[in-house]
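Task 17 of the worksheet. Students: predict the tertiary structure of the chain below and write it out as structure tokens. Keep your answer in the requested format; marks are given for formatting as well as content.
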Amino acid sequence: MGKYDEQVKTSKLAWQSKLVLLLVLPATGAELVLEGSWWANQLPQVAVWTLGLSLLLGLAAWRNRSATAGAAASGASLCAILMLATTTLPYAPWRTALVPVLTVLILTAAATHFGRYRKEQLGTAESRNGRGASQVAANLGVAALVSNGMMQVWLLNQLWLPGLLRSSPLLFVPGLAALAEAAADTVSSELGQVWNNHPRMLTTLRRVEPGTDGAISLAGTLAGVAAAGAVAIAGAAALRAGWVALGIAWAGGVAGLFIDSLLGATLERLGWLNNDAVNFLSTASSAAVALSLMAVVLHNAG
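Model answer:
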């Protein structure tokens, strides 16, 4: 596909990026106001630490040019939601989702900057202004929505069915899987372009140009699997979730990585989905896989 054709395709599918923003930001923004107000009244230190650290993270991403101003603000809001959804008492910010979110940001920023000259030659380099708000929402939105939803289910269980599902680290596993996939996708794509000149299409195994939608390489895939593992380990360690949670989140993240490539090789190449939609759906699939595995574990444990 030529550069002009790619621009036309991007323009025609821009509504999907707006839809991702509409699905993520209003819901998470409203929840942030409600949750933040509740914690500010009940335990102000939680609200102060959560909002302060999230803003600091957003500012760091913006100053580092890893994200535009809008993307940094969106990322800060989503980070705050994830931190509040994983808050336990006694409170410590490093015992929340801040740790895996920070791991995702470090891994993706490093992978994006690695081999930038080579990517600019290929025409696949990320904008020097950083990622946009829709990209951040597509990568982190599912984790925030799912984690908050799981916490709401737990709260309802405490009100109506006490003891059915206690506050377990497993509640965050689907969200952690979505974060693992977000890191895996970016790292595999960014490093694969630098380390492998001849990736192959997932559906046909034919060699294609670097940066082609749905293309995979051994080096990129291994890097992605490692990135997913790093995020899963960081999240499981921060929340003291144990080996089962780590394994489920890692498996979900890796499954989503391949689903991302499959969607890229099919629906994205056909012009039906843009990259933001693919990222949103692949992180959602990671959460779904992790949720299914978690259900099996809980069923066998019961």
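Marker's comment: Residues 3-301 form one domain. Residues 161-166 have pLDDT under 50 and may be disordered.
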